[in-house]
Amino acid sequence: xxxxxxxxxxxxxxxxxxxxxxxxxxxxxxxxxxxxxxxxxxxxxxxxxxxxxxxxxxxxxxxxxxxxxxxxxxxxxxxxxxxxxxxxxxxxxxxxxxxxxxxxxxxxxxxxxxxxxxxxxxxxxxxxxxxxxxxxxxxxxxxxxxxxxxxxxxxxxxxxxxxxxxxxxxxxxxxxxxxxxxxxxxxxxxxxxxxxxxxxxxxxxxxxxxxxxxxxxxxxxxxxxxxxxxxxxxxxxxxxxxxxxxxxxxxxxxxxxxxxxxxxxxxxxxxxxxxxxxxxxxxxxxxxxxxxxxxxxxxxxxxxxxxxxx
Length: 310
Description:
Layout: E1 5-9, H1 13-24, E2 29-33, H2 39-54, E3 60-63, E4 74-77, H3 93-110, E5 115-118, H4 123-134, E6 141-143, H5 146-161, E7 168-169, E8 172-173, E9 181-182, E10 188-189, E11 192-193, H6 200-211, H7 213-221, H8 227-241, E12 246-254, E13 263-272, E14 275-279, H9 286-309
Parallel strand pairs: 1-2, 1-4, 2-3, 4-5, 5-6
Antiparallel strand pairs: 7-10, 8-9, 10-11, 12-13, 13-14
Helix pairs in contact: 1-2, 1-8, 3-4, 3-9, 4-9, 5-6, 5-8
């Protein structure tokens, strides 16, 4: 079986950490590309030199040259401005639309068969941007948000209950923002719903912390998170490369699903070798449905702004 080739666009914190985790997981040959001369080259060389210690040996190439990305199976787009304290994800929209547009044009030129995973914020709007610019089939464009948001929620549940985070599974839906929709009914500890383990006040507090999880990191670091987002990207890429049919929340195209009407939004999806293989429709209760629809309406507002900018 041929080794997978993964291009990661943007050698900043998220991109470089994604490359490092992917190398450690032995997912394939990695190309790290950035517009800043020397940045991707230096980080790639540093990672390669860590290989003999960490036990990986795949090719890790740093470059500013898009021709080096040809033949990529997966392209991860992390490039764009990161949030600073006091900024919302939406504040990044205008600048990052132009960045993701340019990157997407290069993806079409050099990686026309690739599956694209978008990480840049505002996430759902940037997935929409990449889809419009590339014109790729909708199953080949998706965004990393739900894996991250679910991981945060599960982490906070783990801290609250004093149990192993490895035993916790969770699903979130909606846009990647303050109106994301954690689903406590579908969040379990070794198969037990957390609604059986925590009272309503505790769950509400954890839900709110999950919604504010990104800005909590920004306020502490002065910039966006990168370890957990990178881990989320790699989990998605691994499911695609290994054709594992893994179910996880991602920003994917929904037409009739959940009555979204043709937008990219966070829902549970099965990932395999063709990208998004199936959207899983949960039976939401009245409150969950109302929260989801509110979140989707915000995603649609951002998409309308993207249309104006493109």
